Amino acid sequence: MTSLDARFDLVDGRQTNPLNKVPEVTAAFWLIKLMAVTMGETAADYLNVNLGLGLSTTSMMMTAILVGTLALQFSRDRYVPWTYWLNVVLISVVGTLLTDNLVDNLGVSLVTCTVGFSALLAATFAIWYKMEGTLSIHDVDNPLREAFYWLAILFTFALGTAAGDLVAEHFALGYLASGVLFGSVIASLALGYFFLGLNGILAFWLVYILTRPLGASFGDLLSQPVDYGGMGYGTIKTSLGFLAVIAVTVAAMTVMQKRQD
Questions:
Q1: What SS3 class is residue 26?
Q2: Bridge partners for 98 per DSSP
Q3: Where are the alpha helices (DSSP H) in the chain?
Q4: DSSP-assigned states of every residue in 106-150
Q5: How many of the other CB atoms lie within 10 Å of CB of 137?
Q6: Which positions make up the signal peptide (predicted)?
Q7: What is the pLDDT of residues 154-182, one digit of tens each?
Q8: Residues 210, 215, 218: CA angle, nearest 5 degrees
Q9: In the chain, where are the structural domains located?
Q10: How far is residue 162's CA from residue 139's CA, in Å, rounded to a whole number?
Q11: How do residues 24-38 score in pLDDT, each as one tens digit?
């Protein structure tokens, strides 16, 4: 697939390029993505607040780890499940911390962050398409495309964090209502793709952005104290629970890939 109009299934994608560094877009893909972004929210809160590391220290530590795991990812010549999804989990944490630093440490408003990251993401896509002629995740098969891909992923997490916090906190909808709102928008995009001819690449990236605030809303709902509108399970239990789901799903994907090989 080499054009902007290339279409692929949001639920049952097909991998046709053996050199592609990105997994098929399947139900398992969206499950892990949702778990990863939810864990990114709760893990960032745990490191920053519960362990008392603070935003700056947590951000520097997680960014350093991410740089190392991305180097490992770029060294692979094909998609490797555990390497890829490890980077997704870590970049979800770093993307969350990026927005949190701008808001909490630098005093940048959530509205400004949302608009700014939207512009950065749009610029990334524009340059990516101008240089490579495609935004299809089925053709992330060279270092330049992969660099654009991970940069876009980082901005989607930062944007999703800002937009989610804007809706849940600034507009005071609360965690549950925000989750339902973002889930409804995602469902509408899926209907648009399957039945109304919405462009597949556009639908994919919009859903990718919106799963971040969706996951964060439900992560906060589970982890935050009851007094703050949550269910009080805490960041440790919530993070470990989602990590277990991710680990089991990635292990299953690894086994299936080896059988196919």
A1: strand
A2: none
A3: 27-45, 54-75, 81-100, 110-132, 143-165, 175-196, 200-223, 234-260
A4: T---HHHHHHHHHHHHHHHHHHHHHHHS---GGG--SHHHHHHHH
A5: 25
A6: none
A7: 999 899 888 888 887 777 777 778 888 88
A8: 130
A9: 27-260
A10: 29
A11: 888 888 888 888 777
